[in-house]
Design brief:
By secondary structure, this protein is mostly beta strands. It has one domain: Beta-galactosidase, Chain A, domain 5. It is 7% helix and 43% strand. The chain has 4 helices and 27 strands. The strands form 4 sheets. It has a 10-stranded antiparallel beta sheet with strand order 2-1-13-14-15-16-26-22-21-18, covered by helices on one side. Strands 10, 17, 19, 20, 23, 24, 25 and 27 form an 8-stranded mixed beta sheet that branches. The radius of gyration is 21 Å and the shape is globular.
Length: 405
Amino acid sequence: MVTEQIVLTDVESGASFQARENGGIQAGSAASNAAGQFHVGDHNWSISKSTLRGGLSEGVEVVWIHNGPLAIAVLPTRGMGIWKAEFRGIPIGWNSPVRLPVHPGFVNLKERDGLGWLNGFNELMCRCGLSFHGPPGVDQIHDESGNVVSESELTLHGRIANLPAHRVVARVEAESGALSVTGTIDECSLFGPALRLESTVSTRVDSSELTIRDRVTNLGGQPTEFELLYHTNFGPPFLEKGSQIVAPVREIAPRDGHSASGLDCWQSYPAPSAGITEEAFFLDLQADSAGRTEVLLRNAAGDRGVTLAWQKSQLPCFTLWKNPQAEADGYVTGLEPGTSLPNLKSFERQQGRLLTLPPGGSHESGYTLRVYDSESAVSEAAERVTTLQTARPVVHAAPVAKYSP
């Protein structure tokens, strides 16, 4: 299979826009210029890269993958997050008060008592982790006698979303029509964790799907805890009054007392309204015999929808975030598979949900996002997800100790 590999960024070697061996694709061409622009492709597909200029977006690199009907905007400067996407003219993502990508240099994670992460939050998919995620607070590690042996101040959702990739490579497989962009990001510190994320965002020509495949590796010489959560966010037209979540629930619990008041209608969404407080629910999902699980968000008419599908063994936890504020304030819902729940790290450690990587060890995870633009396609997806529901769900009317502090 003929593959063209193009290095878009490589800090270590200084390479940029370098086409590697294995030839090129007959139905495409590559070009770059001094302004930091890059484009490869033809009228059916393309991969392009540009650098945003001005304001808080100064220096943010955007890599667009177009497969024909689907366009995906990847942000190597912001942890290989996905800013937004579009399928046959249908926008995929949400309208954050933060309108444009913010360069990490303008994000102070400690601002607002550790909530500074929100100053750059506007992505369709934003990773939380790698050393920690969840709310700001102090993580304490105790010895066997209960004495505190270390303390560290944690900020909201970790660092990875505000770290840039130091190597970015685009690949095209001419025969299969596979298009991908891979970025490598290090979250490392002296006397601290040394973790590497290698993330690939891929699709195929004429497909309605994108796939994220990640590998987190411990580069250090001792075992290291890590957490990873895919904060995947949707607004209109998938989110509106009457939109619904379809999920194969084994067990569900509200995150807090306020969320418990909305438990009866956790699967549906209200119209946007100013001043409404966010809700969150922790779900244990059922999976098929191969370990695959899936959730669907569909609009009120049932003619627009999106699914996330993943291996539950890789991402055993799922959080549903509902934020039905006024559209100007960020009307959005989050579908969030993760290795753990977005609680303070010390609580997740107590519950045994933290993963530990040995020196040189890796963990692989990711998901496939698929878009539907017809009533029949949405109905078929709902039936597929419903088929995974083989037992009556356990519904907790109030927060439970194993899920919420």
